Automatic annotation (TrEMBL):
InterPro entries named in the record: Flavoprotein-like_sf, FMN_Rdtase-like_dom
Stretches assigned to the NADPH-dependent FMN reductase-like domain: 8-162
Organism in which the protein naturally occurs: Kibdelosporangium banguiense
Annotated signal sequence range: none
Name of protein: Multimeric flavodoxin WrbA
Length: 204
């Protein structure tokens, strides 16, 4: 059961694969959302590649840009989950576009003069079949911190397969226990921080 006072989470899934095809990033994001739901935090996922999000660093690039609709959902949420695959050792190009669009928030402020993202929490989910999850999450967290998000302890969950092989997260028969435990902890910590920020926002 949800109430208006409960935090909400928005997952922006930055796979390069449009729906309805399967996606490891989307699968891990859904597992994180399930853990948030278990902590009383409802949410939804958007596969960004399905939307016409224009390149740019403004909150609205006009001409049918899909970002303003996504932004409204983000403004109504307390927690952002940014889910990305690893490509060539980096976050996906879709994840980079999301960060560039979020850069526009630095010039958008609330009634207290604070950027809108200052009292929101950011978390990250990363998948890939080579090492690199630490590097990718570091890149994302630095950008999200610059934009104003708060990062909880243990704010990332990830899975990477062995080097030089082609197994994807979505192809596993069972989620590894360590990944499941990390996902569970991410949701608990992010929920805790979001509730703290709701009760005591950053000062103007």
């Amino acid at each position: 059961m949800t109430t208006a006072n409960q935090p909400r989470v928005l997952a922006l899934v930055c796979t390069l694969t449009p729906s309805p095809a399967g996606s490891s990033s989307d699968l891990l994001a859904q597992q994180v959302l399930e853990q948030f739901e278990a902590n009383g935090v409802p949410g939804q996922a958007i596969r960004v590649v399905n939307r016409d999000v224009r390149p740019g660093v403004a909150v609205d690039m006009g001409d049918g840009d899909a970002w303003p609709e996504i932004r409204e959902k983000l403004l109504a949420s307390d927690i952002l989950l940014l889910a990305t695959p690893i490509w060539l050792g980096h976050p996906s190009s879709i994840a980079q576009r999301v960060l560039e669009r979020l850069d526009g928030e630095l010039s958008e402020t609330d009634d207290n003069g604070l950027p809108y993202m200052y009292n929101k929490v950011a978390t990250v989910a990363v998948v890939g079949n080579e090492d690199g999850a630490h590097k990718v999450s570091a890149d994302l967290f630095q950008a999200l911190d610059d934009i104003g998000f708060s990062i909880p302890a243990g704010g990332v969950t990830y899975w990477v397969g062995e080097a030089m092989q082609g197994t994807d997260f979505k192809d596993l028969d069972k989620v590894p226990d360590t990944v499941a435990q990390t996902t569970e902890q991410l949701a608990k910590n992010a929920t805790h921080l979001a509730r703290l920020l709701r009760a005591s926002p950053y000062p103007a």
